[in-house]
Description:
The structure is a single chain. The chain is of the alpha/beta class. It has two domains: 3-166, Zn-dependent exopeptidases (Aminopeptidase), CATH 3.40.630.40; 197-268. It is 22% helix and 28% strand. The strands form four sheets. It has a six-stranded mixed sheet with strand order 4-1-5-8-6-7. It is rod-shaped, with a radius of gyration of 43 Å. The two termini are 79 Å apart.
Amino acid sequence: MTKLFVICGHGAGDPGACANGYQEAERVRALGKRIKELGGNNVMLGDVNRNYYADNGISSLTISKDYQIVELHMDSAAATARGAHVIIKGGLNPDKYDTALAKFVSGMFPGRSVTISKRGDLANPARAYAKGYGYRLIECGFISNAEDVKVFNGGIDKLAKGILECFGIKETKPVLSKPQIKPTAAKPKPTTPKKQTVTLPKTAKEWRVYKTNIAPIIGNECGKLKPSKFGGLTYEILAKPQKDVVTIQTQDYGKVNIYVGKGTGAIIK
Ligand SMILES: [Zn+2]
C-alpha cells in the first residue's frame, strides 16, 4: 500500500505568497493537516513548523521508500491567473500518481493548459530524486485569485480526499468506540403524592367512624372517636374512597372511614 509523506510548503517564518487575506504557508498547512486526519496511518505529515525547502529537509529524510512525497503550495501571479498544476522534476516522466493528481487538481481548479510542469530549476524535486523518493509538488490554485481561494477554502476536505485517492488511500473512517452501555437512567421516583393528614379539632366531642365496606352515613357507624378528649386527633389519610370521606387507621377501631365534609371542622393538610 502506498503511503504518503506530506510537506507543507514554506513555514518557519516564511509565509509564502500572501493575497486575498490569506497566507500560503497557513493555507497549505490547513490542507496538509486534513490530509493527515483523513488518511490516518497511511499518511505522514512532515513537521509543519519546518520549512523543508529552506532547511533541506528532504535530503535528510529517512522514511521508507514506500512513501510518495507530496509538497503543497499555492501559486501567485496576476489576480486573473487561475488553475492548479503539478510540478515534477525536469527530465522525468509523470508517474501514475502525477497523472491522477494533475487530472484531479486541474478539475477542481481549472485554468491552466499545462497541468504537469517539468522543472529543472527547483531544489526539492531534485533533492527527492537524488534520494530515490517519488516526489511531486502541487500548486493548489492561485492564492492571488479570489475564486481559487474560495474554491480552496470551501473545498479543503474535497481536496484532501481527492489527493489521497490519487494515491489509492481511502479515507480512514473514524474509529467508533464500542457502544457504551448507558447507565440505566435513574428511574424517576414515583411521585408519591405528599402524605396528607386529617385533623379532627379538639372542639369536636365525637366523630363517627365507619367500617370501610359500609356507607358512611349516620346509623352505620361502628364507633366514635373523641377528639376533644385528646386535644384534637390527627391521622394520616390512607385513602379517599369518596368525596368528603377519608380512610384512617385508628387504635380502637382499626381501619375506618370518617366523614370530613365542609362544616365538620376537619382540617386536611
Ligand atoms: Zn509556494
